[in-house]
Amino acid sequence: MKNYMGTIIKSELEGGVWLLKTDSGETYQLNSQDKSIFKEGQKISIKGQVERDMISFAMMGPILSVKQHKFI
User: Could you name the CATH architecture of 2-71?
Assistant: First the structure.
């Protein structure tokens, strides 16, 4: 697993997609069972894994499965 730091963003594409915009400018589509992380504008540190075998209709970036998180 890798650490990612950035800001939670919501895109209205396809009915709503939650994204992580990292401090280095990368964008990941979030996959999490814990819906408490979905707060637009929230700074966050995520420990997770990019899923290479998953796709979505939104196609907003690689899918990041969240294993742990901490609000900053």
Answer: Beta Barrel (2.40)
